[in-house]
Design a protein that fits this description.
Four copies of one chain form a homotetramer.
Chain A (H helix, E strand, L loop, with lengths): L11 E2 L9 E2 L7 E2 L2 E2 H5 L1 E4 H6 L22 H18 L3 E5 H4 L6 H22 L2 E6 L18 H20 L4 E5 L4 E2 L7 H22 L4 E5 L8 E2 L4 H10 L6 E6 H6 L4 H10 L3 E5 L18 H13 L8 E3 L10 H28 L1 H9 L6 H7 L5 H11 L10 H10 L2
Parallel strand pairs in A: 1-2, 5-6, 5-14, 6-7, 8-10, 10-12, 12-13, 13-14
Antiparallel strand pairs in A: 3-4, 9-11
Helix pairs in contact in A: 3-5, 5-6, 6-7, 10-11, 11-12
């Protein structure tokens, strides 16, 4: 095949002063930050669905994307051709990992068997290209939301046949992920929720979902898959309400059904926001539970109530994200998957490069700013000092669970009143933060 | 003391055709619904803070409320007089329960000891009036958010002295609640959260909060208090983010720290909404975890991003709430506490009656509509039928955990495709719902 | 052609006690309310796009709708067949009016000329069925948002060729609307806005839009079209921001460019909500400017940030809407167009009936409740009395513009302070409102 | 009086490398940007209400602020002392302008006359300090929202006496503003709106408000005040809905009542956001109408639904704001008023300095970045090029109003289809933007 992007060469790092639109100004893969190459901190992944299958269609608009290699069919030939284009893109944009849903790499067949067969053909092709290029699979997943059979849910469907069908689809997707050396497998429950509580048995649906995930964890062990299993929370859209609403809600579910030992979280910036949180918040919650597996890197629009999946170009968001990643000691099997799509109006192939460069450069800068803030140390020191009263004898006893209300009341009566307060200094801390940008 | 509401007599039930503004049109305390008197279904409580201490002040406005009995001081005399007025109000409006914070019934002293003493004086007066009138305490709580010492948190304060002080305050409030025969004790963590993650150690704060609640549960057992301990979730306001965000988040916290055996939830309609949920949703989540203790009955404004604490006058909200209460078999130690305040512009004493009548009548109607929907049975039957495929052999085996992915894949391959779907019929179900209004 | 809905007969009014799902319980077309038949108050219209072209597709899901008559093609034959089905539906559901976009009744051709020809064929068919059935066109419009050519706007496109193309499309749609006796023509500017201000010349775009609308008004006069021209506001979606944000914003635009004499507003419930308003509010704003032309009747979900276009089943919304309609003296050329779609999960043809019945019955009840509230008169009287101080000499002088600051200061100095306030009595008024439900 | 801030010296510019918390890193008053000193671009003003009267109180919390000079009384002596402290603060923080409400500088008296007298005393003191220091009044205003008499509105009160009283208060505030050489006078209608439409005559209230503003404009002319009159929009809070919702809504009102010749807009970042807009958007709308008078500089929290009035520390916000200001050619009588308050937890006097420094430095950087983006020119050029098709003959004829639908249809039929589209390149433009940060 001729090149899909004939006029675009491999994107290079040219430094902050370059005015070349098709060059990195900040992402320098092998540059060391805190002693580790940027690429190992960031572990960028490209999402197959947005990059290869995004066509610009939305509820009020027909497709817009120009993709010269596409016939927009669901043929196996087209599916194979897309693999080649995708690896050319990965190579040129300099991203080492990718993520996919079963159905965006390979077409759904008339029967499950046919779908499995299609998937095998494409999986072999992906394997071939992985081997040839050294690119790797960050995680795989099954698409359990587009097909009408899943309209009422997959693992939470009121129809037991749908549950069985979904199980079979996930089984296969796990197998292919395993074969391709995937470092993780993700469950995003886009249909696991409800449109109306009037027709929903919420408790029974959650019980079913737990059984589903238990079987998945069992199957992982059975086939010796060593990647991490992850749940990706989202509060709403497409459903009115989804069960894996946010980090805390998902952790509650995992704890309730004793699944926390088998699952961690794949957090997405735009999803955190739709749940009413900052990404920072949901990352803190996940990190505090030692359950942050990976990140879907994008950004939303604060004034829009749906998933805009924009490429991350806000330095505050990328810096806060990387502060969290550095704090937890970096990714092990996770990474930064660009679950981001070019705007419908950015319809040229070239825009795929502009957009990924935008995201990679903004994250590279976020990483460098985060490292600078950590090196500066003033914010961390402020926080440490803020809690220093807890480092004394009383604090330690409370933290060890060795005090009770009677003893604390005696101390409080003795004090009479608390006399020392410290300012929270939020404005000052925001200034220090800005100084590193 | 002369009457506080001299022109208002005890509010009576006069039926739907009455045009008397100071009469119930629907709340008929002893009328049986599903075989139980309305008052036992609803267990209304009046909140001392809004009814006696609400003055109409807000961030852009000075107090407006006319309260002829008030000198607006923090004297013990005034605090005692308020008790008398409050019980006159309870008597006239026909509400059997009430709820309070320590500091809205009795003034804060210069020292903790003085505050305790003040509280004892008022507690004795409350006891006296309870005995004289038969009114009861639904639940008590400690106000751990107004005083500057709690600006950074109480159980989550970075200052260990504040933690000790808060513990002493809660200990006392639990004791008084116990003495007054309270059926519950509530923790609303208005300051247990953060304004900025830049100065916050989220994990350490959560650990401290868990220790705090553990001590409270221990102390409950120690003093033999048999009321239920409850957490009241709220997502935000006053802080940017509060830890007890919503039902699921709070359950996650309780599970993580092994506190679920000791705590249930006190859910508030307006708080559920600020967290991005319907009250229905949060009730379903709590009921599914067998953890719905009590309800703060009010309503918010869907277009305002703060806690408006309006009296509940929306029949859809009250009906859905009562459907949930009936579904769980009714309250045991919980009830419907009107955590509702008259609008700042409804500043006359008479408005307190209009507002409570509005809330009580709307809930009485909600109860009757809910009972009608249950008797009608069409919605419940639809839901049962919707999941009927799960009642077969396959469904039962899955629910019992006796199936695995291999077996399900075989079944799915056999099927080839799922062929039967049922419509969700949302619009039809909404029509049936309306038919009972 | 055989019937599209063979098992469904014409929907009849059977009264509130009927349990027949396919009957009206409240909508009784000829029943008089305030001396006028219900059908003339409500003037229901059915939207061709949702009813005939809605397929259940959304961003995360493939089509779901079962439509036995459909081959889902864009052929003229299929387009003709849809007309027949549509009129069968109108007949059976008992709706007298309909609304359409050019492109949802007739397929886009390879050239504009071809599109015009297709449109003419379908227009003739629509005319034939109108004549045969007595059904009427409430309003027509051109679809200027689905086709990629309009991705950056139509009247506000940065490409002047697109502007010309859009003008030609609107010209034709106006002509067809005129031929079909349409009582109005609507402009919904789904693409007239921006995704990013970084690439947008807002002022120049608004100037172009004004020219566009000026030409449309000129053309209306030229062809003698006597229907009303209307703008339909929407704040966002599909774009980040649309220029016709809400009623007030659109009025500002119309005033600025001297277009208010030629245009009125077509308000939609769900759009008002996405702009942060209640429908009540936007109706008050439009009525105060004597500019409420027609209504798109639906409802949104307060917790979802996109246009859910649900059938209106909330009695508060329909009652408030009809209070507004009665207040302005009823529709002249406008009506209640169900810009509402069945949920994606309500995929059976039968659901189209359930949904329209739901909407029609809820509006019929809203009409009756509104009339009851008006007859009761207590709310209107309260409002009148609330402003009664303005009916005195001072108020009248101010209202006539005959007072100045000096004179008012003298009066105020004399008063010293305002001594009389009246309670707003919101809770009481909400109770009265509920009494009529 | 001894200094209020004895340990703080005049804040100096020390450059980006300084680690002195009490120094400017970017704001260098006399440094030229686009040929004009920074201070003349930015024209910072300090708001008296937040800086001198903010006590940290909120709906769930008592005051927290430590202000050693305060006795928290409403005495004239205290009011006089505050003036001295304020000018010490202005001097030390290096801000040349200030803004006030009548009632936050001088106490309300028992009668209007007394209030006037108090105000005169304080005005004289302000004058004295202005003369001594060279500080200037950016704008004055009357506080028409805190006092209970205004609970239902001031210019829109249902009580004509309240209207008269408000007029008298505004008259006096305009006089004092005039005496103090104020460059503007602002109307923020915090109570001009409604809590419930059930008790509101919206049309009559708007008519009254227009009369009020007309009299104000007349009085301005009468006394020869040459400052600009401005309306400050806010969508909600304290009321459910305020009439001056956003820029476009306010312009609509001004046009409707022929007041646009006399009034411009004072836009606030946080208010724009509460209305569902970016500040950028509302600035574009105001600038397009040549009606942007001045700016209230702060920022909100995207996830909180109330006015948080935070100091602006987001470089994107300040850069976009300054791009707008530079685009309109800079302020004439307007400026950047910090309508920003220190967090309740930043309670030390020192935090007032940290916060203002944060805001000033972030705006100084925003100004420099904006100038850099303009100098770079790539974004402006992209926009110009994007609309270049309009610069041809056809575009010019349309813009001049010389084309009609018939002529455009001919052109479109000739074209057949639009064949050229250009990508919107949003991601690329965002990258260019970031390059200047």
């Amino acid at each position: 095949m001729r090149e899909a992007f004939p006029n675009i060469k491999k994107i290079k790092y040219e430094g902050a002063d370059s005015r070349n639109p098709l060059a990195f100004k900040h992402y320098n893969a092998d540059e060391l930050v805190e002693g580790k190459p940027m690429k190992d901190h960031l572990r960028f992944a490209c999402s197959y669905w947005h990059t290869m299958r995004g066509n610009g269609q939305e509820i009020f608009g027909f497709p817009t994307m120009l993709r010269p290699w596409e016939d927009w069919s669901t043929s196996i030939e087209m599916a194979l051709k897309r693999v080649e284009v995708f690896f050319e893109f990965l190579e040129k944009v300099g991203i080492d990992y990718y993520c996919f849903h079963d159905r965006d790499v390979s077409p759904e067949g008339a029967t499950l068997k046919e779908s499995h067969q299609n998937f095998d053909i494409i999986a072999a092709e992906l394997k071939k290209f992985q081997d040839a290029t050294g690119k790797k699979l960050l995680w795989g997943t099954a698409q359990l939301f587009m097909h009408p059979r899943y309209m009422h849910g997959a693992g939470t469907s009121p129809n037991v046949e749908v549950f069985a069908f979904a199980a079979a689809q996930v089984k296969k997707a796990m197998e292919v992920t395993h074969e391709l050396g995937g470092e993780g497998y993700v469950f995003w429950g886009g249909r696991e929720g409800y449109q109306s509580l009037l027709n929903t048995d919420l408790k029974r649906e959650l019980d079913h979902l737990a059984q589903f995930l238990k079987m998945a964890a069992d199957y992982k062990r059975e086939i010796g898959f060593t990647g991490q299993l992850m749940i990706e929370p989202k509060a709403k859209e497409p459903m009115k309400h989804q069960y894996d609403t946010d980090a805390a809600t998902t952790l509650n579910f995992l704890r309730q059904y004793d699944l926390l030992k088998d699952y961690s979280l794949n957090l997405e910036t735009n999803h955190a926001q739709l749940a009413g949180h900052t990404m920072q918040h949901d990352m803190e919650v996940a990190i505090a539970a030692d359950a942050l597996g990976s990140i879907d890197a994008n950004m939303g629009d604060w004034q829009l109530g749906w998933d805009t999946d924009q490429f991350p170009t806000d330095l505050y968001i990328t810096t806060h994200t990387m502060l969290g990643v550095l704090k937890m000691g970096g990714f092990t099997q996770g990474g930064l998957n660009f679950d981001s799509k070019v705007r419908r109006e950015s319809f040229e192939p070239e825009d795929l490069f502009h957009a990924h460069i935008a995201g990679m450069d903004t994250f590279a800068r976020g990483l460098k700013i985060a490292a600078k803030i950590r090196k500066d140390g003033r914010i961390a020191e402020f926080v440490k000092d803020r809690y220093s009263s807890w480092d004394g004898e009383l604090g330690e006893k409370i933290e060890r669970g060795e005090m009770n209300f009677r003893e604390l009341e005696e101390i409080a009566l003795e004090m009479g009143e608390v006399h020392t307060y410290k300012s929270g200094r939020q404005e000052y801390l925001e200034t220090i933060f800005n100084e590193s940008i």
